[in-house]
Every structure is written in structure tokens, then in C-alpha cells.
Amino acid sequence: MLHWIAAARASLIPPATRPHAILVDVGCGAGLLAPHIAHLGYAHIGVDVVHASTTIARQRGVTVIVGDASALPLDDECADVVVAGEILEHVTDLDRVLAEATRILRPGGTLVIDTIAATWWGKFSSITIGERMPAGPPRRLHDADLFVDRDELIAICARFGVHLTLNGLRPSALDYVRWLAQRRLDVRMIPTGMTAGLFQAHGKKVHM
Questions:
Q1: Is 114 helix (H, G, I), strand (E, B) or coil?
Q2: Residue 79: which CATH number?
Q3: How many independent structural domains does the chain possess?
Q4: What's the domain range around 12?
Q5: 125: in domain
Q6: Neighbours of 58 (CB within 10 A)
Q7: How many of the other CB atoms lie within 10 Å of CB of 171?
Q8: In what order do the strands lie in the sheet with 63-66?
Q9: Domain contains 175
């Protein structure tokens, strides 16, 4: 499912508008985003702390920096796009991680997030069901206490100059059935109006 969510994440990223534009992938993991943005014109820089994952990300063409999301080893306003995919639900200091993500984002740049809402449905869909379904996350990957309060996310990002738009995200039921039957290689993630489970957030940084 992480591959499918990465494809949905890429759909929110605009093409580069200048030479040598930079996209910073915070918590890049194994670089699953790379094939979905290769045509958009960015230098893809990934930041992660897990060495095994970063080795695979390099093989996918990502320029990897080993570092922590709460203290990104990058200059202020260096990035045209900052992506934080499937990471915020694993951090203990949401404010600090968002401060760093927005610090390195240029005015006019795009912030793209996907994460899990701090709701009963977020817990039920991502843990109770999600960790038991084929292609879902492994057992005990998530701690529901770290799931993200949507109002808090919006407020923090607004404080740092990024005004977010949210939408929910779910797998296409038809695609999923076909994938289970080995008739599809992947599953499309469908945007929805319900943000109480898996959701996306995106917005542009304004001049402060």
C-alpha cells in the first residue's frame, strides 16, 4: 500500500518551474516516491535515519542525506517542494517536525503531506483493519497516540505560512479486488471528502 500512497502523493506535486528545482522528501524511506516524480524536473533529495532504507532509495536515484526530521541538515528556503509522506504519525514532536519542513521551503513552494487522523476511524481503519489486510502495514507499526489531529496540523502550518487543503484517501475497491485476483499490479488511491482516516494535506508557503 505504501507504493500506492506514494503515487497519490505525487499527484499533488506540481512540475518544476525553474532549473535545478529541489524536492526534499522527509522520511524518504526506500524512495518509493522517486519513480512517480522522475518526470517532474526536480532534484530529489531524501532525508531519513534508517540506513537500510536509504541504501534502496539511492538505488532509485534519490540523493540521500542521513538525518532526523526534527533537525533537517538543510539550509533555510532551499526547497521548491517539501514532502512528508507517512511520517507524521510516527513522530513525537509534530510542531518541531513541521517547523523544520516549512523552514526549508521557499516562499511559493509546495508542502505535501499524507498521514493518519487522530480519530476512532483512523485507528480502526489503519490498525484494526489495515494491519490485517493484504498489502496493509505490518502489525504493531502504528501507535494511535501519535496519529495527527487535523485542526492542530492546520494551525501549526498556518503559523509557519502554509495554509493547507485536506482530502481523504482510500483504495479503489474494484482495483483492490482485481489486485487480490492478480489482475492488477497496483491499486489507485481515490481522493475523498472524508479526512477522518488516511488523509492528504497540501498548500503553498506564503511570504511572511
A1: strand
A2: 3.40.50.150
A3: 1
A4: 2-117+148-204
A5: no
A6: 14
A7: 21
A8: 63-66, 43-48, 22-26, 79-85, 105-116, 198-204, 165-171, 189-192
A9: yes
Any domain includes 181:
yes
N-terminal to C-terminal alpha carbon distance within the chain: 37
∠ Cα 44 89 162 (to 5°)? 60
pLDDT in tens, 96-142: 999 999 999 999 999 999 999 999 999 999 999 888 888 777 787 88
The pTM assigned to this predicted structure is: 0.94
Q: Does any domain span residue 143?
A: no
Q: Give the single-character DSSP code of 15.
A: P
Q: Which three cell numbers stand for residue 187?
A: 491499486
Q: Which three cell numbers stand for residue 22?
A: 529541489
- List pLDDT tens digits, range 30-73: 999 999 999 999 999 999 998 888 899 999 999 999 999 999 99
